[in-house]
Design a protein that fits this description.
Blueprint (H helix, E strand, L loop, with lengths): L8 H12 L5 E2 H8 L3 H13 L3 E6 L2 E6 L3 H21 L1 H8 L1
Antiparallel strand pairs: 1-3, 2-3
Helix pairs in contact: 1-4, 2-3
């Protein structure tokens, strides 16, 4: 039996950050400010993504940074995220959606 993938809008937006620059590292406070969420929520999202193997972390002094894990599994998640971004864009831009369909 398949295990359900639990994604929320906040998780999608966190992954969007990593798709802007695949080599960029983020720390918890930075994700919190960019997504306008609490530090604890940012931490939970990043830890969950790390547990899934999508991102990896390393500690620099007292700061823990996160970046994409360069694996085939991560590429599949990113393809899913790109599809979601496209669908979200087309829902907002109805005229473009109609042009594409014609």
């Amino acid at each position: 039996m398949y295990k359900k993938i639990k994604f929320t809008e906040k998780v999608f937006h966190a992954l969007f950050l990593f798709t802007n620059d695949f080599n960029r590292e983020y720390y918890i406070r930075e994700v919190e400010k960019l997504l306008k969420i609490s530090p604890r929520t940012a931490q939970l999202i990043l830890e969950d993504l790390e547990d899934k193997g999508i991102i990896e972390s390393k500690t620099k002094g007292k700061i823990q940074t996160f970046k994409l894990n360069p694996s085939e599994f991560t590429k599949r998640y990113l393809a899913f995220i790109e599809q979601y971004k496209t669908i979200s864009f087309l829902e907002k831009k109805f005229l473009i959606k109609e042009i594409i369909e014609k």
